[in-house]
Amino acid sequence: MVSVATLFLTPAVWPGTSPGQRLDPRSYSIHYQRGQLLMRLNRTEEGLAELHKVQQMLQPAADRVDDEVSGKRIAEPRPAADPQ
Fold first, then answer.
1. pTM of this prediction?
2. How far apart are CA 50 and CA 80, in angstroms?
3. pLDDT for 32-65, tens place per residue?
């Protein structure tokens, strides 16, 4: 049985990646879990880098929610044009 640490931290064929990242490199969940694991192993710099990736991946969604809540996306009502 493969441990979680093995899945996320074993060097892969491509330098700088792990098998966990190869599962889906666009998955914020994989980066988050890897970051948490690295932080628990006292590999703080690497863990923070993974968590920063998560923040960058989720930022567009957070911006959309902020825009909707603040009303930036709601158009101001305008009176109908007079037909002539």
1. 0.54
2. 51
3. 988 999 999 999 999 999 999 988 888 887 778 7
Residue type (1 letter), 40: R
Measured distance CA(72)–CA(53) in Å, rounded: 27
The conformation of residue 72, written as its DSSP 8-state character, comes to: T
Rounded to whole angstroms, how far apart are CA atoms 31 and 28?
A: 5
Handedness of CA 38, 23, 51, 28 (dihedral sign): negative
Backbone angles phi, psi at 42, to 5 degrees: 60, 30
Contact 27, 33 (CB under 8 A): no
Query: Which phi-psi region, left, alpha or beta, contains residue 16 (left: φ > 0; alpha: ψ -120 to 50)?
Result: left
